[in-house]
Design brief:
It is a single chain. The chain is an alpha/beta fold and 267 residues long. The chain has a single domain (7-255), classed as NAD(P)-binding Rossmann-like Domain (Rossmann fold, 3-Layer(aba) Sandwich). 37% of the residues lie in helices and 14% in strands. It is built from 7 helices and 7 strands. Strands 3-2-1-4-5-6-7 form a 7-stranded parallel beta sheet, with helices on both faces. Helix 3 (67-78) packs parallel to helix 4. This is NAD(P)-dependent dehydrogenase (Short-subunit alcohol dehydrogenase family). GO terms for molecular function: oxidoreductase activity. Belongs to the short-chain dehydrogenases/reductases (SDR) family. Keywords: Oxidoreductase.
């Protein structure tokens, strides 16, 4: 198994991406630290499913906005699983708001949940990796780190901050044997609900704008994460990997492939 006995910390295990990643990495032999919110009722079942693959699982509820809370969890986990080998930061708080009407509180709330947690985890867990001379840090982000959505500006700002954090962290941690990379996720099934905009046509008929006609899935993402977690691509450090199926290459709707399953449709 490609991740045999590696210890993985997933910052938001209760999210859709967190569940898919947890199950795939458990199948690949990793042991898991699943961070979740206190009211996440699905975590016990997820942990049980991961243990069925032979994975050792520790469920924690750290407030990732504070480094002291993370440090306490790391001390707890070290006695059970050892040190963290892979940090997967997948916090992805999202609020629909424009620059014109977005509230200050909402803006700061999204930045704290996304960018600040990424910073605190990088300092605490990445610093521990640097002391040991090895590790992998992966931030699960978005194409909206660079491409405005016109619908959720605070989310885009937070992702832009995390992308630059990844590059800054790679510069420092890379000198200590730690790989740091940022993954720009493209459209998923709920993209129009999340990012549909009155001032941007980016997500109008967005499935037609993906050359292959199929949106990405979290299971596909999990396969990529599994490979990156092996450390086999040592030269990949400080990279921003776009996983959007070619979505941002779109030019004209009528020239693009129809979504999978609609090939025979006349509409």
């Amino acid at each position: 198994m490609r991740l045999s006995n590696k210890v993985v910390f997933i910052t938001d295990a209760g999210s859709e991406s967190g569940r898919a990643l947890s199950l795939r990495l458990a199948q690949d032999g990793a042991h898991l630290v699943l961070n979740s919110k206190a009211n996440d009722a699905g975590i016990p079942n997820l942990a049980q499913a991961c243990r069925a693959f032979g994975s050792q699982v520790v469920v924690v509820r750290a407030d990732l906005r504070h480094r002291a809370s993370i440090a306490g969890v790391l001390e707890q986990v070290s006695g059970q699983l050892g040190f963290i080998d892979i940090l997967l930061h997948n916090n992805s708080s999202h609020e629909r708001a424009s620059v014109e009407d977005g509230s200050e509180d909402g803006f700061l709330r999204v930045l704290r949940e996304n960018a600040k947690t990424a910073f605190c985890c990088t300092q605490a867990i990445g610093g521990q990796m640097a002391d040991r001379g090895s590790g992998t840090v992966l931030y699960l982000g978005s194409i909206h780190a660079e491409k405005p959505s016109g619908a959720a500006f605070s989310y885009s700002v937070s992702q832009g901050a995390i992308q630059m954090l990844a590059q800054e962290a790679a510069l420092f941690l890379g000198r200590h044997g730690v790989q740091v990379n940022y993954l720009q996720l493209g459209p998923m099934d709920d993209a129009d609900r999340m990012f549909g905009s009155t001032i941007s046509a980016l997500y109008d008929n967005y499935r037609r704008k993906i050359p292959g006609g199929a949106v990405g899935t979290y299971d596909e993402l999990a396969s990529i994460i599994s490979f990156l977690g092996t450390g086999e691509a040592r030269c990949l450090n400080g990279a921003c990997l776009r996983l959007d199926g070619g979505f941002l290459l779109h030019y004209m709707d009528h020239k693009m492939a129809k979504p999978v399953g609609e090939e025979d449709s006349k509409t």
